[in-house]
Write a structure and sequence with these properties.
The chain is mainly beta. It is built from 3 helices and 29 strands. Strand 10 and strand 11 form a beta hairpin.
Length: 379
């Protein structure tokens, strides 16, 4: 026969489950509060406010329901939009404690969901209060909506777009909004001599006064094209024969097509060292050298499609293979990368050297791996 207390425990758990509450949840509901500092509400409600209506202030109230003094030493905001009118103080037992929270809605339209944290002496954890509400979006000027003044009255919403990965045989597109703020028709021409063949570009030839629309940019590759790595284009526009003030810069990373790849048997990259620190160097004539290892911890062969660097001062290659040559690494095997930094390229500079090596492979989960290379020029 089971002891009586076992039956009592079983009966208690059954009763809780019949009420639809787990034993753990029941403990949570009956647990002691983090602090004896009790707030009227843990939500600071700003309601619906206008973006251009100026800062809004709410007063927060709490009372010390304990029997001892509580020191409130700090209140931390998680956002620059929130300021707190507060000085550290001691709150006696039964005493009311208040402070003001100011929220600046400018350039923050939409839902308010921020937090502040109160440090009280009787709690190891900081007490969290949420700021809630909604900011009604203000009407924006043309200059705000189209911040890039290209000249001659043409303005763009952006002049840069990074597309991420482009798999072989696929295409991706994006739009850049424009507006003609002038009182004349603008004639638009594109300097296309240095653009990559993978770039897709659809720009109007004529833009009427006051007209707005989109310049369509994108990239496309064929399945058998075998283009790998970073593709960057600087698109130069001519507006009524005058070169625009800014180029439109786009970039994409071309990879294998992974649509039919089996994730279980796919190759997988593991690099032994992703950060290379050369420390203090002579910026005039030092050749810094380091090695790191690329492991294939997947099943299928891993292919290093290409290796890129962010500067001519930085070179990287697989030991035993020629520059630009594809390298195949069998499952469980590895290859050694040699990395060299020529500091003479930084002879006239004092800034900390930070460059990157990018390795493009047929790993479907992480087609591009980055190795960060740094040095400190000292003499």
């Amino acid at each position: 026969m089971k002891p009586l207390h076992i039956y009592i425990i079983i009966a208690a758990i059954t009763a809780v489950m019949l009420l639809g509450i787990s034993p753990i949840a029941a403990q949570e509901h009956s647990s002691e509060p983090l602090s004896a500092l009790s707030f009227a509400s843990h939500n600071i409600d700003f309601g619906t406010i206008r973006e251009d209506g100026g800062s809004v202030v709410r007063t927060v109230e709490a009372i010390n329901r304990g029997t001892s003094d509580i020191v409130v030493s700090e209140i931390i905001s998680t956002c620059g939009c929130t300021t707190i009118d507060f000085k550290p103080r001691t709150v006696a037992s039964g005493e009311l404690f208040t402070f003001a929270v100011r929220y600046d809605p400018m350039n923050r339209p939409g839902r308010i969901d921020k937090s502040i944290y109160v440090r009280a002496s009787d709690s190891e954890e900081m007490l969290r209060l949420r700021l809630v509400g909604f900011v009604l979006e203000r009407e924006r000027s043309t200059e705000e909506l189209y911040p890039f003044d290209m000249g001659c009255g043409l303005r763009l919403r952006s002049n840069f777009h990074a597309f991420g990965y482009l798999e072989a045989g696929e295409q991706i597109r994006e739009s850049i909004a424009y507006i003609n703020t002038s009182d004349r028709t603008l004639e638009l021409e594109v300097e296309g001599s240095a653009l990559s063949p993978q770039l897709l570009l659809d720009a109007p030839r004529h833009i009427e006064p006051g007209a707005s629309g989109d310049i369509i940019i994108g990239y496309a590759t064929t399945a058998d094209e075998q283009v790998y790595g970073t593709i960057v284009d600087n698109i130069t526009l001519y507006i009524c024969g005058t070169r625009a003030r800014y180029d439109i810069t786009t970039q994409v990373i071309a990879t294998d097509n992974f649509a039919s790849t089996d994730d279980i048997s796919a190759p997988k990259v593991d690099i032994s060292k992703n950060i290379i620190k050369f420390g203090e160097v002579n910026r005039a004539n030092t050749i810094c050298e380091a090695e790191t290892t690329v492991h294939n911890v997947g099943h299928d062969p891993l292919i290093i499609r290409c290796i890129e660097s962010t500067s001519e001062a930085l070179t990287c290659g697989v030991i035993g293979f020629g520059s630009g040559e594809e390298v195949t690494i069998a499952s469980g095997k590895s290859a050694t990368l040699s990395i060299k930094l020529d500091t003479s390229h930084y002879a006239n500079g004092d800034d900390v050297i930070v460059e990157r090596v990018r390795i493009i492979t047929n790993d479907p989960m992480r087609p591009m791996q980055t190795i960060k290379v740094g040095a400190i020029p000292m003499w």
